[in-house]
Amino acid sequence: MADVLAASKPSDWRPLDPENTLYLQLASGLVVIELDPAFAPEHAANIRTLAREGYYNGLPIIRSQDNYVVQWGDPDGKRDLGKARPRLPPEFTIPWTPTMPFTRLPDVDGYAPEVGFSNGFPVGRDPKTKQAWLAHCYGMVGVGRGNEIDSGNGAELYVVIGNAPRHLDRNIAVVGRVVQGMEWLSTLPRGTGPHGFYEKPEQYVPIQSVRLAADVPAAERVRLEVIRTDTPTFAALVETRRNRRDDWYKVPAGYVELCNVPIVVRPAP
């Protein structure tokens, strides 16, 4: 894998879109999140509105469930949403069109007829129903909701910090993924209440701010670029994960799960 990346060309990488990049600031460090409006356009728009109006500033992380998710939101449910919409249609899946980019993995998957990557995000799709969806891989960001399918609005978000809970696919709107700073979320103290919720307010981890990169002066932005998933370089990277040929491995697997393919992020030159 290191050899493939070392041989990559500048055209094998893409910059983050400032309009779809969130900076979540904790006391411990910065978490950078890339939104994917192609799969959840209305949720992404609502999240941008919430960020621009300062909704998330001062909210706590209220849940840290081992091998599952970290979640933040308003524990009292009283904070004003401002111009953001309180309810959104369930963007659990989207219609698949032939023009949408898709780099398919050759291996079978237990949760989708086909899996692969679209614009750098892990995706499942069903050719029969012509539907596609973002998958719950490590670091992916989803929208909390109640039992009603239109009750999620982006005011409550979670990040996968454990083994991929793919059973959640097509049941929740997935809106993006963490591209830097996962260590600040995955190492948080685990909640002692049911489902990892913190039982006392003093256990909450405060969020200092959430800003869109587009609203941050260019000189202060975190310059990152992501490996493109529609290139021969990425195909070669996938193959290094399917059949690991370095000296340590004695039995190459000949298989890779969707969530075990790394979407590499590096500082932009």
Task: Characterize the structure shown.
This protein is α+β, with helices and mostly antiparallel strands and 269 residues long. It has helices spanning 2-6, 41-52, 182-186, 232-242; strands at 13-15, 21-25, 30-35, 60-64, 69-72, 94-95, 103-104, 114-118, 121-126, 131-134, 140-143, 157-160, 174-180, 205-206, 209-212, 224-227, 265-267. It has one domain (18-224): Cyclophilin (Beta Barrel). It is built from four helices and 17 strands. The strands form three sheets. Strands 14-4-5-12-11-13-3-2-15 form a nine-stranded antiparallel beta sheet. The longest helix is centred in the first third of the chain and has 12 residues, at 41-52. It is globular, with a radius of gyration of 19 Å.
Using brief descriptors, characterize the structure shown:
269 residues, alpha+beta, Cyclophilin, 5-stranded antiparallel β-sheet, 12% helix
